[in-house]
User: Which sequence fits this backbone?
């Protein structure tokens, strides 16, 4: 509930992305690890291998989960003998390898000729591509601060902006409460949950692409699972019926407020931001507010408008896909008149320099929380000596855009 009750999860769950499936794969692998740590049976080991394969198949980062899972098997079985420890880890690894290959063979039986290879070539190609793409610094923006590369503070700040405050309080309280879990439970949780959580967190916080808290969804899901156990442990420590009732009521109120925030965010859940970080388009960029979900709203609005457009969205979608649109990219401000539509990500980060002059004018409308609408009675006069503000302006009170 702590994880599902989030506007971001609700929003991106409707898009064709790998973040939610990968989170499910990581969560299943941790659950399977907990079951194996309790029983150490062959059946539990087979289920663990299957769950690890799901994590590896849905996202390249799942390889970190596989490595941590195999390491835990070796560590916990070490006292039973080195051979047994590595044999059990080898069985789980073999299951992962077999399932990854099985999926690729089901999609393309012609790959059977390449089966002797350790890794399916398309999977290896994806690893190589992401090894270049995800290690290349990109522009980022948050709360009026623009920069290139990665900043560790971006992630906790994004979490405060993008996650309901009551839900964060429950996560923090639950994490603290894990200290009072029984010793065997703490040890198993540390091996099954804390280890993959730390690996994914370290990988995410050190990459030079600060594009959205969705990269931390697996971490948040595991955090929520641990926090739930911690909250139960804390409630068990509370003595007295009255105190117990008050504690349960406090948890229930915070949980209800979190769910209410999620419900109120619909249908613009991706663009939702917590108070007081509003309007969202002036606070964050990329998938923290805009993942191109405003395309259909833009297409409907642009009909008959003949607007200037700078749209940010999926690869392959260009201004030519917007009815009657003219491209803003490369257009001088002195040529722009009438209607203009600018995606938040294009304005805040992706095309921040070339479109920065728009931040000196207030928009007259907002499509789907992600595309700012401007209307000029005549081409804007620019003053070279006056740099544009760091963030987009709030909506204009009138029908025409005016200078800030």
Assistant:
């Amino acid at each position: 509930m702590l994880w599902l009750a989030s506007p971001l999860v609700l929003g991106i769950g409707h898009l064709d992305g790998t973040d939610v499936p990968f989170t499910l794969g990581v969560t299943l692998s941790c659950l399977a690890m907990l079951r194996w740590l309790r029983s150490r049976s062959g059946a539990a080991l087979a289920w663990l291998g299957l769950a690890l394969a799901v994590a590896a198949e849905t996202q390249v980062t799942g390889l970190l989960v596989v490595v941590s899972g195999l390491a835990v098997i070796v560590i916990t079985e070490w006292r039973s003998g080195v051979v047994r420890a590595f044999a059990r880890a080898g069985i789980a690894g073999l299951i992962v390898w077999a399932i990854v290959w099985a999926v690729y063979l089901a999609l393309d039986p012609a790959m059977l000729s390449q089966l002797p290879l350790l890794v399916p070539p398309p999977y290896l190609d994806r690893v190589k591509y992401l090894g270049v793409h995800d290690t290349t610094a990109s522009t980022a923006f948050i709360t009026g601060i623009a920069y290139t590369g990665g900043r560790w503070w971006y992630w906790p700040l994004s979490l405060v902006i993008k996650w309901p405050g009551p839900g964060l309080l429950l996560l923090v309280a639950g994490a603290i409460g894990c200290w009072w879990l029984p010793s065997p439970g703490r040890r198993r949780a540390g091996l099954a949950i804390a280890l993959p959580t730390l690996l994914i967190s370290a990988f995410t916080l050190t990459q030079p692409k600060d594009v959205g808290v969705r990269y931390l969804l697996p971490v948040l899901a595991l955090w929520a699972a641990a926090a739930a156990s911690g909250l139960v442990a804390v409630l068990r420590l509370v003595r007295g019926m009255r105190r117990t009732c008050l504690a349960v009521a406090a948890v229930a109120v915070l949980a209800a407020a979190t769910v209410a925030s999620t419900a109120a965010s619909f249908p613009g859940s991706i663009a939702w931001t917590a108070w007081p970080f509003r309007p969202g388009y002036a606070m964050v960029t990329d998938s923290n507010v805009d993942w191109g979900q405003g395309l259909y709203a833009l297409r409907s609005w642009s009909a008959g408008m003949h607007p200037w457009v700078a749209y940010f969205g999926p690869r392959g979608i260009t201004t030519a896909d917007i009815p009657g649109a003219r491209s803003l990219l490369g257009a001088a401000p002195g040529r722009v008149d009438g209607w203009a539509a600018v995606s938040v990500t294009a304005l805040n980060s992706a095309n921040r320099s070339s479109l920065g002059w728009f931040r000196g004018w207030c928009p007259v409308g907002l499509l789907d929380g992600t595309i700012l609408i401007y209307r000029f009675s005549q081409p804007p006069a620019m003053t070279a000596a006056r740099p544009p503000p760091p963030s987009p302006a709030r909506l204009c009170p009138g029908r025409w855009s005016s200078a800030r």
Observations:
- Strands lie at 139-142, 145-148, 308-310, 326-327, 338-343, 365-367, 371-376.
- The CA atoms of residues 169 and 254 lie 8 Å apart.
- Residues 290-376 form one domain.
